[in-house]
Design a protein that fits this description.
Layout lengths: L4 H25 L3 H4 L4 E7 L4 E4 L10 H6 L10 E4 L14 E10 L2 E11 L28 E5 L2 E2 L1 H9 L4 H29 L1 H26 L3 E9 L9 E10 L2 E5 L17 H15 L15 E3 L18 H18 L12 E8 L5 E8 L25 H7 L2 E8 L15 E7 L3 E6 L20 E4 L7 E3 L3 E6 L4 E5 L14 H9 L9
Parallel strand pairs: 10-11
Antiparallel strand pairs: 1-2, 1-5, 3-4, 3-6, 4-5, 6-7, 8-9, 9-10, 12-13, 12-16, 14-15, 15-20, 16-19, 17-18, 17-20
Helix pairs in contact: 1-5, 1-6, 5-6, 7-8
């Protein structure tokens, strides 16, 4: 039974509206800064097969229902049930690091299961070797906090208080964990109610058929466009993660893309060995599909971000024991370093095979953490992610100071009101962009005066191997950390460090990297060069 075009668009719009309502609820009720201010969370609507109908997709999200239904068959689920997990290895990469706690509730209509509501968020602390549960020096996943296998945390609407207490007891900040948990659970319940209302109005069979059509059409659209963008043949690109933070050795990230007739295959088996430290990435097929879909949707904004974005390739080949498919108990907390290199490799493949029609590479965002124990044994923890320069585009300069994961930075007023620090400087970093006909985006300079004795940890990539340019464009400038710049005790801080002692009054300068350039820089419009050099307020010139 086919759904008429008008009803199809009504259902599509209604589901998108439900997503917006879920997001609004999470943002109003979550407690931790990383969710309520930085927006590091996800919500989605899935059909009964675990396919994405609508969601705001990150590289987590594809096949996120599968780990639950492998343990709890759908026929055993009941209204009011709600499931919880965060184990990256057990979920086969559906969740990519332990900090992302996933919640899932089955949706029932007329006593029949019809789909799933999903939410997850990055929790402030879930135990592990350090406050915040992420350290560049982690050497096994047990250092990265409690591992929750798929569990039924609610049965018929009743909370499993014993299991809940165990998880809360593993956090240094249980109040934040509980507040975020309640917010994400409530988002799932809201989606249940709204989907039931939608089916009451338009009929269960009509809505489910609309889900099928939305998904099948988007898969076909992605497959068609991918075949147009990358010509027949085998295409190859590789790059390197700067270093395993534990052993100091770089790790190769290798991508081959094979277009053979109607068949589309990605091969990552040439990637280097898994890292001892946490830069490993469990590359599920869905996650790699989505990395490629981001490139395709950039080139064709009409492509939807749903199941079509995670299921259009015929095969994604990985090799266990590599940095792109590590073996348990490998740590994965800094997997974004490898994700960004995969994105860059795909951009390189598209550029090589399509006349440079792809953006230059972008550096991974930069994070620093501050930790101490205050009066009464209370933990004090702060973590901040800072944007970097976007790679230049085939039609325009790269954007300045972009946080690639679609998240926000912390407002200065919020930081200074909540934590013992003061922002002394926040600016675009001059001359950090990769030169090109279109230059890369500039990185950011942020100077933070730390107002308490504590320890510092840092994470930064694209220092040893900066962002590459496309079609003659040049590399972006690498980032760096400096403690007390210009003072007699000035000190360069390694890009991936843990436990650096800092004193009250010290200043930490963070300089993030610039994006690669696109095209020959000697052909750049002289007026654009003049504007780059003479502009008095770089914050005005953001696009």
């Amino acid at each position: 039974m086919s759904v008429d075009p008008i009803t199809l668009e009504i259902v599509r719009g209604a589901v998108s509206s439900i997503i917006l309502q879920m997001e609004g609820l999470v943002e109003r009720t979550a407690m931790s800064p990383v969710i309520k201010e930085k927006m590091d969370y996800f919500v989605g609507i899935y059909d009964l097969k675990g396919r994405i109908v609508d969601a705001f997709l990150s590289t987590s999200g594809p096949k996120i229902v599968d780990p639950v239904i492998r343990v709890y068959p759908i026929e055993d689920m009941e209204p009011g049930d709600l499931y919880w997990y965060n184990d990256p290895h057990r979920s086969k990469g559906a969740i990519q690091h332990t900090g992302d706690m996933c919640f899932l509730s089955p949706v029932f209509h007329e006593e029949k299961p019809v789909g799933f509501a999903v939410s997850f968020g990055h929790f402030w602390d879930i135990g592990g070797s350090v406050a915040g549960s992420l350290s560049p020096k982690s050497s096994e996943i047990f250092h990265e906090g409690i591992l929750v296998p798929p569990i039924r945390i609610m049965r018929n609407g009743e909370l499993n208080r014993e299991a809940y207490a165990v998880i809360l007891n593993n956090s240094r900040f249980p109040e934040m964990l509980e507040g975020d948990t309640r917010a994400l659970m409530a988002a799932c319940r809201l989606a249940e109610d709204r989907l039931q209302e939608l089916m009451d109005r338009y009929g269960q069979s009509q809505v489910l058929e609309a889900f099928d059509q939305i998904i099948e059409r988007s898969i076909a659209e992605y497959r068609k466009f991918a075949r147009e963008v990358i010509p027949e043949g085998e295409h190859h690109f590789f790059d390197y993660v700067d270093a395993d933070p534990v052993d100091g050795e770089p790790r190769r990230v290798d991508v081959k893309f094979i277009h053979d007739g109607d068949r589309l295959v990605a091969d990552l088996t040439g990637s280097g060995p898994q890292a001892t430290g946490p830069v490993n990435f469990i590359t599920s097929p869905g996650a790699f599909n989505l990395i490629m879909a981001r490139h395709l949707s950039y080139m064709n904004p009409e492509l939807p971000l749903n199941e079509g974005a995670v299921d259009f390739l015929d095969e994604v080949r990985t090799k266990p024991g590599t940095i792109t498919y590590p073996i348990f108990p490998a740590p994965v907390g800094l997997r974004s370093h490898t994700v960004i290199r995969l994105m860059g490799c795909l951009g390189g493949i598209i550029a090589q095979s399509n006349g440079g029609r792809a953006p230059a590479s972008s550096p991974v965002y930069v994070i620093y953490n501050l930790r101490t124990i205050g009066g009464g044994g209370k933990y004090l923890y702060f973590s901040e992610g800072i944007g970097s320069g976007q790679g230049a585009r085939p039609h325009a300069d790269g954007l300045n100071g972009i946080y690639f994961r679609d998240q926000r930075n912390y407002p200065v007023e919020f930081e200074e009101g909540e934590f013992p620090l003061r922002i002394e400087r926040y600016a675009i970093r001059p001359d950090s962009a990769g030169p090109g006909y279109f230059r890369g985006g500039c990185g950011i300079i942020r100077e933070v005066r730390i107002m308490v004795d504590c320890t510092l940890s840092t994470r930064m990539d694209n220092v040893r191997f900066p962002c590459f340019g496309i079609d003659g464009g040049m590399s972006g400038w690498p980032g760096r950390f400096t403690l007390n710049p210009g003072a007699p005790d000035e000190d360069d801080i390694p890009p991936a460090s843990e436990g650096i002692s800092v004193k009250s009054g010290d200043i930490l300068r963070i300089e993030t990297g610039g994006g690669g350039g696109w095209g020959d820089p000697f052909t750049r419009n002289p007026e654009d060069v003049q504007r780059d050099v003479l502009i008095s307020d770089p914050f005005i010139y953001m696009i």
